[in-house]
Amino acid sequence: MHLLPQSLFGRLLLFLTGGLVAAQLLSAAILLQDRDQALYHAVGGHVAQRIAAIVKLLDTLDEAERRRLVTALDLPPTRLSLDLPWQSETEPDERYQTTLFRALLKRQLGPHRPFQVEITDDLPPPLFNDRPPRGEPVPPMPPSDGHEPRSPQWRRHAMMLGLRNFVVQARLRDGAVATFQQVLPEEVIAWPVRLLLILLVLLVSVAGLAALAVRTLTRPLAGLADAATELGQDIHRPALAETGPLEVRRAAQAFNTMQGRLIRYIQDRDRILAAVSHDLKTPITRLRLRMELLEESPLREKFQADLDEMQQMAQASLDFLRGGETSEPLATLDLDALLESLREDAEDAGQKLRIAGTVRQPLRCRPLALKRCLTNLIDNALKYGQQAEITLMDAPARLTLTLHDQGPGIPEAEQERVFEPFYRLESSRSRDTGGVGLGLSIARNIARAHGGELTLRNHPQGGLEVVLEIPR
Is 470 helix (H, G, I), strand (E, B) or coil? Predict the structure, then answer.
């Protein structure tokens, strides 16, 4: 997925942070729900107890005293009226809040007291904001049209508790109806800012610790990847520090063991190369001396040609085996000067080589190996393309050298196979039509030993392009 971070640190941090955020949101939802239920029990119990006390007191008073008591008690947040008719319930409200509040009222009022409960999400109507003159009846509550102003506090309350008003009607002993409307105060319905702040601090703290832990765990992996990259350029690089968790120490130990084996393998190979080089040159030299004793004849010329071919094949094979060696130390090379000398050598041989572009700053490389690589590429291009052009593109992180010849090109299916040792498109293996098939293999080995790459592609206007990329 392209949306995921590419690094292991980024992915682990994303998964851990996402899990923490989800866990904190779920915890916050559970805590808020528990708080809401606790608040509802507390507020509902208090309201039910107060309503029951008022109803029992109204039962003991006559009409005039009731009016005076109602006038005295009709104050926010509890509003009280004796003039509203009994409203028959159309559909029973089976919500949890209503069922619980009904049970609390029944416990306070007694099982034989007729009452009904409605819990609404509407704001109290405007009539509760304007108190009528003393002695005048309270007008009936008009139906809500849903257009009363909504304050942010009430919106938050609706989201938290799912209710706004308790509306209770209870019959007195003489048949009168007492109507109560309880509006929750704003301090009850406000968000628990302190609790949410604690959850936020906890989330940030745990996310920071998770980021630190993930960075600590992934840093050795990044070091291991860097070491593997450097190993291709310098086999004698310092060994990895075998510290950290058990798995990291085991990986570092395995890497150091592999590096030691590679060093021993290269040392054994170098000894074998020295021995083979000596053992091949000695009989070839003896044959040349004995050939000199032969009289001038066509047979002597054939001997000379065979010895030259044997020596060329042996030297090319040794060069191929040495192509990826890193015994030559790194040094700063003026690549412009090297290419200019190769261009002059080509012109002395009657061939045409053009160079476009320059290198901004010297290149740190293995000069002799890189010269061998460029020589093989230029010789191959001039041999099959008669003339060639080198284009340089120097970027801060990478140097790109493109060699374009005027030859017939190479079929796409063969462009990777020509890098195989001793593979040639021309199957006769004649010295007149090409070498022994190791030039491109040696060049690619040298490029990869520098941490770069060598690729081939056909030019749209004809000819072959060889692209050499070397990191700085």
Answer: strand
- The rounded Cα 463 to chain-centroid distance in angstroms is 42
Under CATH, to which class is 328-471 assigned?
alpha beta
Cβ atoms 419, 349 nearer than 8 A: no
Q: Would you state the pLDDT for residue 328?
A: 75
**139 touches 156 (CB < 8 A):** no
Q: Which residues contact 190 (CB under 8 A, 6 or more apart)?
A: 153, 156
Domain limits of the chain? Answer: 8-130+150-193, 232-322, 328-471
Q: How many CA atoms, within 13 angstroms, populate the side-chain half-sphere of residue 385?
A: 27
May I ask the CATH architecture of the domain 232-322? Orthogonal Bundle (1.10)
Neighbouring residues of 308: CB distance < 8 A, sequence distance ≥ 6: none
> What's the pTM?
0.46
Tokens 């052009």 found at: 389
Tens digits of per-residue pLDDT, 245-295? 788 888 889 999 998 998 888 777 777 777 776 777 778 888 888 888 777
pLDDT above 80 (res 119): no
pLDDT for res 85: 86
